[in-house]
Amino acid sequence: MKFKFNKDSILNIKEMLSDMETEICGSISYFDGELFFLDDPTADSTSKFCQIKNENIRLESETMRFHTHVFKCYPSIQDIESTLKRGRILDVILTKWGVWLMSVPSRAPVILKQPEKLVAVYDKYSYPLYLSSKEKLISLKDINSFITKITWIVNNSIQIKFKNWEMLEADEFLL
User: Fold this and answer.
1) What sign has the CA pseudo-torsion 137, 142, 148, 151?
2) Is 148 contained in some domain?
3) pTM for this model (two decimals)
4) Furthest C-alpha separation in the chain
């Protein structure tokens, strides 16, 4: 499945990433064939993590949500587990490297029989990404290994995609 992001909406967040000290998060709205990012003014972004607090947008934010990573340039284990647990249609993480998209094709919550295996694979394959982010480098080879191993360990019950900012702009914001 491909998703088209609204150019102004995504570039606005990209611009904010360079000056951010705390994460922002919110829901994603679909209108006229494009996805728009909607900041949640009730989100708690006083720490380096944000949590959506407004119960009125709970349903939409549970199925299609976004957040930024200020320091980490890849999904956390909590991001992956949350997407699986909630059976999210779309979970987008915007980082200084680019955009990560995670979704559960079945749209049903996924219960892992051995979550420790996911954690072990995550730890092994996220470490090169951690090193790359410290050096401010992007290794597409390491990103592809990370995506391949994570999707494999959960029996393809999650889809993970990544595009750096240049690729995303060249593809007219289609991911």
Assistant:
1) negative
2) yes
3) 0.85
4) 41
Structure-block tokens of residue 34: 């494009």
Q: Tell me whether residue 1 is in a domain.
A: no
The one-digit pLDDT tens for each residue of the chain (175 residues) are 678 888 888 888 888 888 888 788 877 888 888 888 876 544 554 444 455 444 333 334 456 888 888 888 999 999 999 899 988 888 899 999 999 999 998 888 898 989 999 999 999 999 999 998 887 788 899 999 999 999 999 999 999 999 999 998 888 888 7
* Positive or negative torsion for Cα 36, 40, 46, 49: negative
Residue 103 within a domain? yes
Query: Which contiguous run of DSSP H or E holds residue 17?
Result: helix 7-17
Q: Are 3 and 175 in contact (CB under 8 A)?
A: yes
Tokens standing for residue 23: 């994460």
Task: Judge whether 147 and 160 are in contact, CB under 8 Å.
Answer: yes
Give domain status of residue 132, yes or no.
Answer: yes
Domain span including residue 101: 7-170
| Those residues with Cβ within 8 angstroms of residue 137's Cβ, 6 or more apart along the chain or in another chain | none
Rounded CA gap, 52 and 29, in Å? Answer: 15
The length of the chain is: 175
